Amino acid sequence: MPHTLEETIVRNMESGYLCSESVLKGAADYLGITWEHLPAIATGLGAGIGGTANVCGTLTGGAMALGLARGRNSPDQDFLACLGGVQELVEEFRGRFGSITCVDVLGLDISTEDGRNRAIETGFLNLPCKDCLVFVARYLAENLSAAD
């Protein structure tokens, strides 16, 4: 049974992928792009870029997903459609969550051992992470197909 992009991205995180990996892998599957290393290139962006609680991994994964759909493969190609889509996603995310950083969105500093342990005990999907995943997935569902 086919799943929506939203369901796929949430299931990716339920199965153990980080936020950034979940979004990029889900978007790649949605676009029909297969490469076994796609989740790996998003790993360093998880938990607010390398676990520093900075820019939310769902947002950086979303930026990478837009790059898959609208990015360029040579310097002579236009990059503005991709940048414009990422800027729109960032502003809509900030409008919805009040910030683009993990520490602000979660209200928890996952860059510390205590914060990370509390997040793991609670379960990331029981934190605002799931809302962030759903928000970015819905944005991508509307905007990845529009990029074709």
Report on the structure:
- The protein has 148 residues and is mostly helical.
- The protein has one domain.
- It is built from 8 helices and no strands.
- The protein has helices spanning 5-14, 19-31, 38-43, 57-70, 80-97, 102-106, 113-122, 129-143.
- α1 packs antiparallel against α2.
- The longest helix is centred in the middle third of the chain and has 18 residues, at 80-97.
- The protein is globular, with a radius of gyration of 15 Å.
- The two termini are 25 Å apart.
Provide a short characterization of the protein structure.
The protein has 148 residues and is mainly alpha-helical. The chain has one domain. It is 61% helix and 0% strand.
